[in-house]
Structure formats: C-alpha cells, structure tokens
Amino acid sequence: MEQAIQIRPGSGDFPPSAFGAGADTESTPGAVSSLLLVGSRMRADELAAMDRVRVSCVEAAEAADHLRARPITDILWLASKEAIEPETFAALCGVAVAKSCRLVCEAPFGALDRLMAVAPGALRVEWLVDADATDRFVALAAARREWYRAMHEVTRDPAMERIDQLQEEVARISRLLGELAGQPRVGLPGTPASYAPANEGFGDYTGQVRAPARDFAAMPRSFVPEERTIDRQRAKAVRRMLRQRRMREQYFPADLFADPAWDMLLDLYAARLERQPVSVSSLCIAAAVPATTALRWIKTMTDAGLFLREADPLDGRRIFIALSEGAADAMARYCEALEE
Q1: Phi, psi angle pair for 144, to nearest 5°
Q2: What pLDDT does residue 283 have?
Q3: Is 295 exposed, middle or buried (CB count within 10 Å of its CB: 0-12, 13-18, 19+)?
Q4: What pLDDT shows up at residue 88?
Q5: pLDDT (0 to 100) of residue 307
Q6: Secondary structure of 48-79 in the HEC alphabet?
Q7: Which of 60, 162, 282, 319 is the most exposed place for a label (fewest CB within 10 A)?
Q8: How far apart are CA 270 and CA 288, in angstroms?
Q9: Rounded mean pLDDT of 109-136?
C-alpha cells in the first residue's frame, strides 16, 4: 500500500499518538531546531556547537521584526550583555507566543522580578542566571521541540478521517462528563482540585490533602486560641526550621543537603502565616542554591500546582509566588503532626 512520510513538530507535552488515530509514529532524534539568538557572536558559536541546532544571531532592537519575518523559529534565546528593557522584552514575548516558539532568557538576578512579571503565562520560558555551559545545555534540551515521524496512508478515505475525529471528540466529551460527575482525579496530592466527597473520611487521603475542621464552639472562651497567635507561633517554628537547615552548612558542605523544593515550601508557608508576600528573587535566595537551579524548581513546583503566581497589586512590574491552597493545607497538616 502506498504511504507518505511526514515530519511533524510536537509540543513536548503530548504523546506521539496525538498526531492522529492510526498513525505509526516514532521519535526522530535527527531533527534540527531553529534558534534565534539575541546576543553576542561568541554565544552564538557556543550554541551552534551543540547537537542538532541551527543558530541565527540578531541585535535586540531588530529581534521582534526579525522573528516575525522568519517562517519557523523553534527557540528564541535572549543572551544580551546588558539587561533587556521590559518594553522590548514584552514585545519579544508577544511575538514568541504568536509564533509558538519557546523562550530561553539569560537575565541578571536584579532584573529577574520585573522580567518574570512581563512574561505571559502562555509562553514556556527557561530562565538562566549566571549560567555556565552545562546550564545552557540543560535549558536548550528543555526548550527543544519533540519531533516525530508519522506514517500515514495517502489512500485513506476522507470519511474515515472524519470518523476518527468524531471518535476523539466523543472521548473528550466522555472525559469531561466524567470529571463533572466527580470521578477521582489523578494527580499530585495537595494540588488545587475539588475536595473529596463529604462521605469520605479524612483518613482516606484519596482526595485533596485537607486538614479536618475544628469546632471550638463548645469550649470555654478562655481556651479558644486566637488564630493570629497560632499563626505567629507556627511561623516562628518554621523559621527556626529554616535556620537549623542553614546551620548545617557551617559544619558540612552546603550541597550535601541541598533540598530547594522543601526550603521554598517552608519559606512560603512561613510568609503565608506572617501575611507577607514573597518575590521571585527572595524565594531564590531562600532556596539556598544557584538562581538558575532555584528558577527551575519554581517552574516545576508551579507546573505541579504547588506554587501560584500572583501579580503585585501595587507594582505591575513585579510578581509574587505563593502556596496554592492544597499545598498550604498539606503544610498545615504537616506542622500539626509535628506539634502532636
């Protein structure tokens, strides 16, 4: 039977089967990524030496127009020696979203907050601060598109294609109805989701991690603890835990106990109890690891539903990072367990 071979780019978030029912797909490691660099020729030579990438270099002032004119760009890489102005950065982000390309941004630590505030949520960004060659290689691998080779029958009847599309639509509607009907949602415990049904006990842990309700109505008023007092006491305990973790670095190598995810969870939970906002740069410092590593962890925790991005109501050029409700509930239950 006659067949045609076609190379297709994937977003990296979908399996090869997403290209169509009945398609025989396989990964194509030899595909080359098109990269537009805003930066020095030296950095362009370094990136061009990496495997499977084709690099073009342009100045920051011309980057937006150049990106619009290019038919295909997989990765936009910002590596200018001086910090890019937020207006220029916003324009580049807008074009990147329209062109469906991914962004790698090398930024100075001091400009991190204002640049992250400008980056739209629809754009996938890999952030680098004081990066070395290894960090750039990892960022390139994370930003690279996944390519697939799909085998299609050119003699396939158009009616069959329509039937396949209808089947996919029916399956999608079925999944949606299942979610509306309250089927259990598979995901990371503690992520924002509907709470477990009322008939499930708190010991089942099949739904969202949630602290049991406490009723102090029947207790004498003198025994009713003030919420703010409890929060202040718990915040002090969490800050003490963070200080104890930092004290280990006086006696052992700092990277021996590196656990940025837990350090950031503790810092955000203490800030939540203290009613204090946390900026991206502040959270990177709390992680006690290089800024590029901390940014990668912030992205991972945000994708997992544990962290939330919140705009600063007083300064639109800055964003804050906060715990999701599910993550805050999980941390509260953890602290309650320690207090027992």
Answers
A1: -65, 140
A2: 93
A3: buried
A4: 84
A5: 94
A6: HCCCCEEEEEECHHHHHHHHHHCCCCCEEEEE
A7: 162
A8: 16
A9: 87
H helix or E strand, kind and range, residue 320 = strand 319-323
With the C-alpha atoms ordered 145, 13, 112, 70, is the resulting torsion angle positive or negative? positive
Give the C-alpha separation, 31 to 11, whole Å: 14
For residue 218, give both structure tokens.
């029947």
CA dihedral 320, 321, 327, 331 (to 10 degrees): -90
- Helix axis angle for 60-69 and 86-99, nearest 10°, is 10
Q: Which of 111, 155, 156 is nearest to 130 (CA)?
A: 111
| pLDDT score, position 1 | 41
Query: Which two tokens mark 165?
Result: 């599309």
Q: Phi first, then psi: what are they for 102, rounded to 5°? A: -100, 160
Q: What is the pLDDT of residue 221?
A: 46
In 3D space, the residue among 313, 328, 218 whose CA is nearest the CA of residue 273 turns out to be 328
As a whole number of angstroms, the distance between CA 339 and CA 285 comes to 28
Q: From CA 27, how far away is CA 148, in angstroms rounded?
A: 5
pLDDT in tens, 298-322: 999 999 999 999 888 887 778 899 9
